[in-house]
Amino acid sequence: MQTAHEPFDSALKWTAAAVVLGTMMSILDTTIVVVALDDLRKTFGTTLATIQWVTTGYLLALALVIPLSGWAVDRFGARRSWLVALTLFVVGSALCGMAWSAESLIFFRLIQGLGGGMIMPIGQTILARAAGPARMGRVMGVVGVPTVLAPVFGPVLGGLIITYAAWQLLFWVNIPIGIVALAVAWKALPKGEENHAHKLDVVGLMLISPGLAALVYGLSQTGVNGQTFTTPKVMWLLIFGVGMLTAFCLWALRAKVPLLDLRLFRHRTFSIASLCIFLMGAALYGGLFLMPLYYQVARGQTALVAGLLMCPQGLGAMAVMRWAGTLADRKGARAVVPIGSAIIVLGTIPFTFLTPTTPYWTLALSMVVRGVGMGLSMMPLTAASYRGLAHSDVPRATTTTSILRQIGGSVATAVLAVLLQQQFDLAHAKLPDQQAASVTLAHGFATTFWWAIGCSVLAVIPTLFLPRHTERNSAWDKNPNESALELALEEPTT
């Protein structure tokens, strides 16, 4: 039986290395291109409305393919699915660097996104199975570092490349990392079990993938060119997306082998952890959306400087993440995550008093505090979501939490974009004087951050209901195929 103090063996270390390389590469690519859109627009001689599909198309591809991850692991095995996802991502990266037009770049980004969308959920599945519940927090603490650092350092790396090198390196930087990741995965990952009888839920796929794509795209369009939730295009996309996802839920509850197993929400801990992951995703990506814009719009900094000013948050997270995972393994998620959530709120409060002259050291210190809160929260939450689940439930659980995290981030970004756009319109319409407009813009960011505070406070509440202690005997320890329900009948709840 595993214990919380059991050290990592060589096989687990190699497995973690393989997953870290792959996840770092895929997450980094979601943000590295953001600061380069204007340069890409000029390079290909196109409009901003067209070139923004370089990022939007990538996000849509992620939304389309994430639901397939759990099925792919069950059908083809985790190792083969991981290698295919990595290969697709590396090939897509190489093609992006060879693009000759905006349209070809957008198409190649779709290919890249199809691979990138499966990397994170499959990687978490591999690690969850390799580590087991007793070591889950520590392993997720190690692997969670790129999850928090990549969105922060992506704009920095993108700004450096655009400033000092060719735009092709935005994509070709993935190739050497990807080759190393493939080599390590080929060596380290064990051959997984394949279930050729596991059929794809085609009806479910036809409902959930278009539904997710429409929802994510509709949310991403709010705040663009003055669009709001009531703009007909956005409104119909959101209605279609919600309708398709509702239809999927009704189907999944009846299907024998659904693409996404909603029955997992019968497990109390999984349901609470999933809600926390959704709200934490909103809190994390909401802040990552607002702060770079504040540095650029209200303070007049370049994209590169704005990215560098975001680094303290990543450093704060990195400083505590592994320790948080170890503590969560020993004491349970409730001993760590509520504290981290409260620290996020405290670290965000100074941003509600932003001005055009707020000292950078104050902002940096606040970013460090937010990062510490993220480090204490994100990976212990992911580990807690697996608590009490059977070994066979892990792929579908990982797919579910990945989707919730992405939707949470998309919803928060969309809402904050609309609120911020309203503040921009007020500043430019009523205050033609540049200095007065700058003050109003900074105040607009401060006002918008109050909504981010509300989201962060809301995220604290469900963390108080996470499990207090780790389980003495896990489903993995007893029988990989034993259900969580059988386990719960044997052991007292905490």
Structure commentary:
- By secondary structure, this protein is mainly alpha-helical.
- The chain is built from 21 helices and no strands.
- The protein has helices at residues 10-31, 37-44, 48-51, 53-65, 68-76, 78-97, 102-131, 136-164, 169-172, 174-188, 202-221, 232-252, 268-298, 303-309, 311-331, 337-348, 360-385, 394-430, 434-463, 475-478, 484-490.
- The longest helix is centred in the last third of the chain and has 37 residues, at 394-430.
The number of domains = 3
Radius of gyration: 22 Å
Total number of beta strands: 0
Individual helix count? 21
Helix content: over 70%
Q: What gap, in angstroms, lies between the N and C termini? A: 20 Å
Largest sheet geometry: none
The protein's oligomeric status is single chain
CATH architecture of the largest domain: Up-down Bundle
Give the full name of the CATH homologous superfamily of the largest domain.
MFS general substrate transporter like domains
- What is the string of helix and strand elements? HHHHHHHHHHHHHHHHHHHHH
The unreliable regions are 471-494
> What would you call the shape?
globular
Q: Compute the average pLDDT.
A: 78
Q: Which structural class do the helices and strands define?
A: mainly alpha
